[in-house]
Amino acid sequence: MNIAVCICQVPDSASAVAVIDGALDMTRAAWVMNPYDEFAVEEAILLRDRFPGSTVTALGASPESGKDLLQKALAMGADRAFDVRSFSPLQDPFQTAWVLAEALRNLYGEALPDLVLCGRESLDFQNASVPAMLAGMLGMVFTGPVSALRAEGEHLELERETEGGTELLVARLPLVISTEKGLNTPRKTGIRQVMEARKKPLEILQASQPPPPKVSLESVETVSKKKRCRFAATPEELAGMLHADGHFRHISGED
Amino acid sequence: MAYYLVFLEPRNGLVAGVSADVWHRVQEQLFSGDRVAGFVAGSLSSGALDVLQGSGTVHHALSGRPAVPSDMELCRMLSELVRKEGCTDIFMAATAAGRRLAPAIAATLPASLLAGCTSAYPDEKVCRRYIHSGSVLAAYRPQSAIRIVLQGREHRRVTFSSLERPRCVAFQESPGILRDAAPLIRAIIATSSSEDISEAGIIVAGGRGMGDAGRFAMLEELANLLGGSVGASRSAVDEGWRPHSQQIGQTGKSVAPELYIACGISGAVQHLAGLASARTIVAINSDPYAPVFDVADYGIVGDVREVLPRLTDAVRDVLRKK
After folding, report:
1. Considering chain B, what is the average pLDDT of its residues?
2. Quick one: B17 and B165 in the same domain?
3. Among candidate residues B151, B170, B189, the one where a domain is terminated
4. What pLDDT digit, counting tens, does each position of A156-211 carry?
5. How many structural domains does chain A have?
6. Would residue B88 count as lying in a domain?
C-alpha cells in the first residue's frame, strides 16, 4: 500500500500569535506538528506495519514546515519525506491543495497513492478545506473526519461523526481521509528514533507557481474577549439575575 | 445581481431544518433582480418542500439509484447546475455533509470558500472569521466570480415569511455524469441519542472540577430543564467522563450558543477557543482567579457540587413563576 501523509506546522499556542501594524506576528511562536496531523502520521505507520511492502511518504507544504516537521514525521516512522517548496508563500487552502496535488502527481504519476491521510484541519487558520480540495483536484474519493479505521485488504471500515451520531462506512481504496482526534494515540519519539530519522531520505520538491488564491486575507485584528463579570453571591441570586436579564426568555416553565 | 443556489440537505425524507434556515436567510437578503435556486437530491416524502417559503426554483435530482447520492455525485451535480444556471453564490449549512462537500465544489469549479463568517456575508463584502483559536479576527475577501458560503449556527434564526412558494423542477443529469462515482458504501448508521452541541442554543458544560463521571448527571438535569445540551472540556473527555463528540475547544467543537454555563472549567485558552461565538457565558468555579471569569458575563465562586443542585432548583423556581 502506498500511503502519503500531508502535514503542516502550527504555533504551539495561539497566545503566542500577535497582531503588529495590522499584520500577523509569529515571531514569539514555537512551531509544532499540527496535532490532527499527528493522528494521520500515526495511522499511516500502523497501516504500513500491518501490510508488508507498504511505504509511508510524508509531505510538508507550508512555508514554516521545513526540516523539523518532516524530521519529526520520519522519527515517528515515515519512510521518506518531501519538503514541498513554493516560490511565494501559499495564501489560501486552494493554493496549498493545488501544490500538494501537483507534488503527489509528480511522485506517484497516474497511479496516485492508495491512501492519502491529512489532519482534519490545521489549528492556525482552521479552514478544514485542504483534504477535500486535494481529493477533488486528484479526482479521488474523500471522507472524513474519521475517528476510527479498520483495514481489511482493499476495504476500509471507517467511522465519522455527523449531526445524528456516528456513521459507519465501508470504503474502497484509493481514498483521501482526514483524521479526527480519537483515531489513535500518536507515538512519542525518543533520541534513538530522531537519530535514525536522520538516515532516512528527506528531499526538496520544487512546486510550480499555483493559480491565484481564491480567498485573500485582507486584514487582521486582535480580539479581546475580556468581559466584566457580574458575580452572584448565591445560586439563587444567579438564577434571578439570569432570569431578570431575559436569558430564560425562550424556555417554557415546567409544571 | 446575485444568483443564489442553496444546497438543501435531506434528512429522513424531509428538508433538514438547518437547510431550510439557510434558504430563508437567503430569501431575506434578496435585492431586486436577485434570483434563488435550490438543489436537493434523493427521495423525499410528499410535501417535504412545503417548508420552503419565498421565490425561486428548487431542482430535485431523483436518480432512483441509491437513496443517498455519494459526495462525489453531489459535487458533480451541483457543479453542473452552477455552470448551467450561472449561479454566483452557493449557500450551504455547515453540517458534516456540507463541510465535506463545500471544499470539493470549491476545488472543482473553482470558487471562493467562505466558512465560519461572524457577520452574515454578503452584507459586508468580506467574511470576518476567527483564526488562531479565536485570538485573531481576520477579514477574508473572495477573489472568484463564484462564492460558496458555509453557514453555521452563529447566524441567528430568521423570521422570514412569504405567501410565495418556490416551484420544483426535476434536475436533469447529463448522460454519464454518475460514471465511476460512489465507491463509498454506507454500511450502517448508528445514531447516538445525544443532541449535536454545535447546534445547541443552550449548553451546560463540565470540566475537571466535576470530579467524576457520575456528577455529570447534575449537568444533564440543568440542561434538560433549560432545553439545552451537555458539553465537556478536554480534561473531562480525557478522563473518559464524556465522549469526544461533546468536547468543546481547540481539538473539539466550536459552539455558538445563546447561553453557555461552564461548570468546574478553569478556562484554558484551548477551551475558550471553542467559545468565540457564544453570546452569554456563565462560570461556576471554586477558584476566584480562574481565567474563565475573565470571559464570563456572570459568575459564582463555589464548588460546583454544592452550587449546581441549588442553581437547578432556583432556575426551576423562576421558570415556574414566569
Report:
1. 87
2. yes
3. B170
4. 889 988 877 788 888 888 999 999 988 999 999 999 999 999 999 999 999 999 99
5. 1
6. yes
| DSSP state, residue A68 | H
Pairwise CA distance, residues B79 & B35, whole Å: 18
Q: Which residues of B, range 19-48, sit inside 8 Å of A by Cβ?
A: none
Q: Which amino acid is present at B190?
A: A
Residue B124 sits at φ, ψ, to 5 deg, of -100, 155
Domain interval for residue B285: 197-321
Evaluate whether residue B192 is within a structural domain. no
B144: CATH: 3.40.50.620
Cα dist. B189→A151, A166, B67 in Å? 19, 7, 14
- Best of A225, A228, A237, A249 to disrupt the B interface by mutation (most B CBs within 10 Å)? A225
10 Å Cβ neighbour count for B32? 5
Query: CB of A180 within 8 A of CB of A146?
Result: yes
- The predicted-structure confidence for B88-109, as pLDDT tens digits, reads as follows 999 999 888 999 999 999 999 9
Residue A216 located in a structural domain: no
Find residue B38's DSSP bridge partners: B6, B58
> Does the structure's ipTM exceed the value 0.95?
no
**Cβ-defined contact of B245 to A219 (cutoff 8 Å):** no
Task: Say whether both B31 and B155 belong to one domain.
Answer: yes
In degrees and rounded to multiples of 5, residue B303 shows phi and psi of -75, 125
Q: Does A150 touch chain B (CB under 8 A)?
A: no
